[in-house]
Amino acid sequence: MAAAALAGVGDEDVQPQSSCWPDQAGIGSTARVSPRHDPAQFVCNNTQLLTPPLVPEIRLHLATEVVPLWRKTEEKLEAEGIPPPYWAFAWAGGQALARYLLDNPHEVAGRSALDFGCGSGLVAIAATKAGAARVLASDIDPFARTAVALNAAANGVSVDRTSEDVIGSDADWSVILLGDMCYERPLAERLLGWLADCARTGTRILLGDPGRAYLPKSGVQKLATYGVQTTRELEDREIRETSVYRWLPQA
Fold first, then answer.
1. pLDDT attached to residue 76
2. Which of 150, 188, 243, 250 is least enclosed by beta carbons within 10 angstroms?
3. How many whole angstroms from its chain centre is CA 135?
4. What is the pLDDT of residue 7?
5. Dihedrals φ, ψ of 32, to 5°?
6. Do 168 and 118 lie in a common domain?
7. What is the dihedral of CA 116, 176, 127, 43, to 10 degrees?
8. Domain range for residue 57?
9. CATH of the domain at 170
């Protein structure tokens, strides 16, 4: 999946919004660190607080054309020590899954849930709003971990976060949620095998996906389909048909 990349906007270009600043999200201030490399200041300086088209109940710090974040290559970001900013976009699969949870809160209400590859934390926030007893947002990108804290604070909810790679761990959750995670073969091969093991032990697994290359062709049940408004900067069309699937235990 080719993510649009962020430019290294400085303090003089975009002043952080008060709702975005680190101390208000409970993640601590690191003002002595350059904004170009400090995750909290980088997120604040390079995003706007917006609502995803399919999930207007939730506000996220997202990249837009208004703040010039779209043009820097992944190679330039890597040279600056910044991973590809998947957290800065509300991907179609995540929007669909978040919408489904808000409309069907019984899927997570009172249960523990893992939002795997959480990015912005959209699905984790939706699960929390839908009544999940405990939600862990997991993403190996430390910038995503920070973005989730800021986004959770913007929505008045609390979400646990981890940057550990949880693939292969014992499934300590009633529900595992995945939005748009079947885009890359090496990840999919590791991930799908682990999900199969988790499903066999009784974990309910829900996937939001717009038909990425490595979405399982069998062993899943379609629960809902949405037309998700997107942008040609990210996708090959402006409306992406995206479905939510349940992983069948025998798969």
1. 65
2. 250
3. 13
4. 30
5. -75, -10
6. yes
7. 0
8. 22-88
9. 3.40.50.150
Task: Give how many domains the chain has, as a whole number.
Answer: 2
DSSP summary character for residue 109: B
Q: What pLDDT shows up at residue 66?
A: 47
Q: Distance from first CA to last CA of the chain, Å, rounded? A: 25
Q: Which has the closest alpha carbon to 122: 141, 140, 139, 98?
A: 98
Residue 5's pLDDT is: 31
- Distances in Å between the Cα of 125 and the Cα atoms of 88, 99, 170 are 15, 11, 23
Residue 151 near residue 212 (C-beta atoms within 8 A): no
Gap between the Cα atoms of 179 and 173, Å rounded: 17
Same domain for 110 and 229? yes
**pTM metric for this prediction:** 0.84
DSSP 142: H
- Which of 88, 117, 145 finishes a domain? 88
Mean pLDDT by 10 residues, the chain (251 residues): 33 38 47 56 88 97 67 62 82 96 98 97 98 97 94 97 94 94 88 93 95 90 94 74 92 48
* CA distances for 36 relative to 30, 40, 86, 158, angstroms: 12, 10, 17, 27
Cβ neighbour number for residue 158 with a 10 Å cutoff:
12
State the residue for tokens 């523990």: 112
Q: What are phi and psi of 106, to 5 degrees?
A: -60, -20
